[in-house]
Fold each of these.
Amino acid sequence: MEMLVSQDWLRRKVETDPDTDSDAGPFIMVLESIGMFLPPDVTPAETQAPRVVEAFGVLVRQFRRQKQWTVEELARRARVDAEDLRQIERVPQVRPRPRIVHQLADVMGLPERALLKLSGAAVTRDQHFEEESMLFAAKSDDMSKLSRDEQLALNEFVKFLTDQAK
Amino acid sequence: MTLNLSAHEMDVVERLADEKGLSKTALLRQALRLYQSISARLENGEKVFVEHPTTKEKAELMVLS
Amino acid sequence: MSDRLGTYLLKDRRTGKEVEATLWQSIDDRHVEDFAQKWKPIFETRKTELLKRGALTAEIAGEHNLQDSHWEWMRKVEQRRDGLAWASFAVEAEDVTQGLMFVRMDAFAREPSQRNKPIVDIDLVATAPWNRFRLVAEPQFKGIGRLLLAAAISLSVHEEFNGRIGLHALPQAESWYRDVCGMTDLGIDGTGMRYFEMTEAQAKAFVS
């Protein structure tokens, strides 16, 4: 078999390619599913401060309400199961799988690592992070449209999460 | 080696090669691959099924190995 | 026996330098050995860590069929050697296996414009753990995934499949295959993974 690409082709492409994983296949998915490929600084743990995890559900719900999207609409855009999203929004104890967090981080334009910590997929011993998350969760109210205060709190928290990644 | 195929068999080879966009040699190689992989599965004790897209009815594929 | 398909240059992110790599067709004993001796311990350490912290429970392992499929493909190397439908590739640099790929040639296309035509289906593409973006802080080599994809397309052309290929992407690789490699996203299928296919035109664009 003859290769259709040259050494120069690869060199050229590598220069402009984004830095990302390129793995494929069901076998490697098994490893992914158990959290094998989580970043090393975010270690998965069974226990996470419940209030921090609660903040994840609140954040997802408020983001969705801000966009005025239905659960189905967000599920479609994030390419995740709508039922999983409903669980995340409604059940504070739910610890979503890293894949779902990854997909949501993508659609919400937020740093994945911060969301992994918030979702309980990874443990955090960062007290400041916990405090900010709990404060945010406490400010939420479940009215259908975001109030001005909620809007402000959401914006502030999004900024905090983004700064976390810097 | 020379393959002795009937006129009917040659027709099938030509039609399938045309459908799949392959030369006759590539088609026969592909056929051999499929035959080998299905036989291997059956030898392993696996069953190979063909499923109807709407009725979901399954028919077991029988290959004499 | 492996065939040397070519010599390419990978970028070492740690030094910024180019490092010579060899692309082989057919995974050889030494590649399997590298996997067992050099890749697997890193995965195993990670697994132990997950188990210790309670993140990986028997229930989760069971749910993902982890015991059964545990490194099963290593054993498959032997079986697949006799299979006409299988081909395998390895990338070596600094005398170590940096990437592995298994493909099968008895699959058919699903994308409407090429439905039922034969394709090269990528069953596994994996890079060594130290090249993995989410596993180590500073992954070493860049270019392995792209080189292996080019090999799959070259094989597809060689087999008269005109560059048509298909694969199931890992979630964090979905955007790579869709947005960078230009493959068609055919949605999540029965495997629970997103399935992508490359048409003849997309393959041409990829290798140009």
Amino acid sequence: MNPKRKQRLIIVLFIVFGAATAVGLSMYALNQNINLFYSPTDIVDNKAPEGTRIRAGGMVVEGSVIRDTQSLNVMFDMTDYANSVTVSFTGILPDLFREGQGIVAQGAMNSDGVFEAVEVLAKHDENYMPPEVAEALEKAGKMPDQMRAKGAE
Amino acid sequence: MIPELGQYALILSLCLSALLAVVPMVGATVGNTLMMNYARPLAMGMFFFLVISILCLGYSFVVDDFSVVYVATNSNTLLPWYFKISAIWGGHEGSLLLWVVILSGWTVAVAVKSKNLPLEIISRVLGVMGIIGVGFILFTLMTSSPFDRHLPQFPAEGGDLNPLLQDIGLIIHPPMLYMGYVGFSVAFAFAIAALLTGRLDSAWARWSRPWTTIAWAFLTLGIALGSWWAYYELGWGGWWFWDPVENASFMPWLIGTALVHSLAVTEKRGVFKSWTVLLAIFAFSLSLLGTFLVRSGVLTSVHAFASDPDRGYFILALLVITIGGSLILYAVKAGNVKSESSFALLSRESLLLVNNILMVVSAMMVLLGTIYPLIVDALGWGKISIGPPYFNSLFVPLMLLVAGFLGIGVASRWRETSVSFLLKQLWLPAVASVIAGLLSQYLYAGEFTWVVAGVMTLVFWVVFCNAMDIWKKISGRSSLKAGLAGMSRSYFGMILAHAGFAVAVVGVVMVTTYNEERDLRMAPGEVLSFNEYQFEFLGAKKVQGPNYSSDMGVIRVLYRGEIYGELHPEKRFYPARGNVMTEADIDPGLFRDLYVALGEPLGNGAWAVRVQHKPFVRWLWLGGLLMTAGGLLAATDPRYRKQARRDAARAAA
């Protein structure tokens, strides 16, 4: 093998090795950090694991929001209109969090069947429904008509 | 009448861009000078009519013409005039119009600034820009015209601009970002033109290099502005979320950074040519992918706006045509490219290749994390999301490697560098940076955190290696003045951009490690002690704004027991859309920000309050500004113009 080819081989090997390491590490990191989405119905059916970080989404049930008077703890129910699950959150809720609004929350189920959220997301746009929530509602057959009309706009 | 004029101008610009896409291209293929000469006037015509079009839209906003759907949705009579102007790009339709206006602006800039380029090249470059123009103007006209009317009945009052967007950040962030995104179309057009002409040489790299650098500088500025905007406007003090929409702008930036470096090698040494072309194609393709991700509504994101899937399919089709077409062309043509020189395994060429690989790997890993949830969803495996830990755990080590190699790269020489030479150059910066890194971390925090000390060492490594290089250049000259005069503007640009990288890294590591945050309930008179600061909540009062009413909290800040000042975070209510908005109040400083935001009222005058102490957070954006300045400085180096004239003379001969 002449020196030039040898040099090229080293470079190619370096690239292949580097790329393989990168892909391997990426896939590992990816698998460690996937958060699966569950609808309230999935959770009520015990499909969601306990204690693992998941995402859940639905509509905030009207009249269900209870604030603690002394701390920043908030409890509310989240529904796909078929089933609902209680969410507990400590902290400051986003501006667009409102009763009747679609939200997505990150967190984990505790042993009492309460979803302990560490993050609650509501969207910039009041007509916007998170796609996961929309699909969960469609699956439960409970998509409100006026929402569907908005979605079709 | 005026909106129809705007629509008409848009259609005319479509016709002109279609001509631009065909006539000069055909001319260049058959060697017809007359046809090639049409390229410049057509580019200007396209720009002219697009400017008329966007002016018409601006006029409709200023006079509150709510018969136009887009104006009615995004404006309001109470909106101040400057927000009415910026509302032009406050929604999907208008921002797309801005996209094509900027595209045509770049096209005209290339047409005007390229007097020295061979006609065949320039007509192909402008032709490619025309093709892109056709795609996007057609997209605007067919799926998202901003000039559609509400007829026969239109609302008396507009729906108002989204309050989050009523802000100085939104006035400048999207145009800057688009300047960068769309600017890569120039690099792309030059790459395609070079492939078509079969002229991939250093002259080509020299022509395309300043354009790429300017686009990169704008993209850097756009991303920095976006991060700054999110920081103070979203009300929770985050500056980067690894949100898909942020990633959409960050991937072209990473590839663009690789491209800027790879172009340097191609220009100086005539190697990496096909790799540079590939990067140019990728940079623009990722810009298009970014547009697709943001505009198609396939993503759940803090930025997501309601949008419709037809638009997504249209952009997806554009994306497939662009990537597919250019890669096929690349496959056919790039095989004939020959390197003009060779280089040793340890040389500046190799080290820049390492930079390129690290940048491309980072971009791929961001791409994987961004589209993996989409792929999983498309295959029906469920709904997932990828959290920030994925990105952090991969991106941080990659960038630390970049910092490490950056120092060696600056010190190394073209063609061949010996290990002993590098050791001689670098032992001093190495020792100095370890000492400075450990010391600065200890002095700041009063205790050792190895991670931070390590990162700070790398930061000083970057700074010292660049400083060493400057010193070496000056010490060889008779005086300091002669030494500085001997350095080119692009050299200063490089130093500035590298310094900006170091500064940004300082910001990231310090704010991530030493950020302190407290969310709590505060009743009037309650005091929160925080580091050397005390925050006393004095209650909230009602305030009336032009198009909103607000609860303004009053918080007195004490520094070591002395009164320091007052902060006034607000909770605003915009009645037009019924939106509530958190307006944080920030006391900015070079070494720390105090960040206070109001949550919800909790009864009896008490409020949920968020208080944050963010050390060095400004350095993030300062670093971005330095990189931008470096890019602009390098791109305006007079050497490019002189060299271009010489290259053109050689090409003509």
